[in-house]
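Running this now, will post back.
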Amino acid sequence: MTGALADLLVDTVDGGASVGFLAPLDHAAAVAWWTERCAAVAAGRLTVWTASEEPGRVLGTVSLALPADKPNSAHRAELVKLMVHRSARGKGLGRRLLAVAEEAAAADGITLLHLDTETGSPAEHLYRTSGWTEVGAIPDYAADPAGVLRPTTIYYKRPAPPGPREGNALQGRGELRDGGPGAELPEPGGAGAER
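Update: finished.
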């Protein structure tokens, strides 16, 4: 799984998205970065969802980072690393990933989500049209893949309380799951959401 996630990360950086890395990103470095995340996943501090078209090829991912070491922050989580492969963009996958993460957060009792994204990036449109509230921008926050310092915009959202379901399909923390081949990412609100 880390190899497929690394492929996605390399594609995302090569495509110009500011997700914390400079271009060109070496595949081995991307694998190492995802491998380092496994400890946080195992400890329940990070939940990662993936969307795959076929086994071994991840088209998208999103994660929720939980401040497990801060008892006064157990009500919130940070949405991190929402990535969609360039070949899968414009088909609603980013919006589906975002909705699954939001619903899982609500089902787990998270009442506040926050994120940051490069100011002026295409991701801002997704967050704004998905009900996220802009807090403000920080200048020269991080370098884009080309090494140019860019501002970041902070957003937050209070996820809607979970609605009626056929069981809680988003149970358990500390797993990195893949829904498998064939548009495995569940529809928001439905059974079968994987985490």
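The longest helix spans residues 27-42. More later if anyone needs it.
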